[in-house]
Design goal:
The protein is 84% helix and 0% strand. By secondary structure, the chain is mostly helical.
Length: 63
């Protein structure tokens, strides 16, 4: 059987999704996903900012 995400198969992923649905309910899931999206966006922005600073520092050292 092929592994999908983090070595979990489709049955395990379905069980995890079912548990999340039971714990948080259908109304809270979109709110949770929005929060996760914002967190990922902030992380990527911070990562890009650090990469740009490192590139600028390397460019200054080369000059």
């Amino acid at each position: 059987m092929t592994s999908l995400i983090f070595g979990l198969g489709p049955q395990e992923l379905m069980a995890i999704m079912l548990i999340i649905l039971v714990l948080f309910g259908g109304k809270k899931i979109p709110e949770l996903m929005r929060g996760m999206g914002k967190g990922i966006k902030e992380f990527n922005n911070a990562k890009n900012s650090i990469e740009n600073e490192v590139k600028e520092s390397m460019k200054e050292l080369e000059d």
